[in-house]
Amino acid sequence: MELVADAVTRELLGAQIVGARAAELIAEVALGRVLETTPLELIATVHAHPTFAEATREAALMLEGRGVHFFSGGARASERPAVGDGDTAGLTRPRRA
After folding, report:
1. What is the DSSP annotation of 8-40?
2. Which domains does the chain have, with CATH numbers?
3. Catalytic residues
């Protein structure tokens, strides 16, 4: 799974999903698109473990350069912000009318 977001507003624009469970995974991305979600909001959403839905959170982390299971370039893991309760930073943004 790969997510695509606007470079300026960070609003989720869509996703590319390939695999046997793609039809099950697209629902969260579609809802996020309708609600004008950002990758940070997807990261802050609970994704049960172990489930295929965790791929959505991992894709959002990758988009933010903070992938857990895959190296996404940029800063070394020790230099990246920790993933956890602090993930809600930046969630307060005005919604379009």
Report:
1. TT--EEEEE--STTHHHHHHHHHHHHHTT--HH
2. 2-72 (3.30.390.30)
3. 49
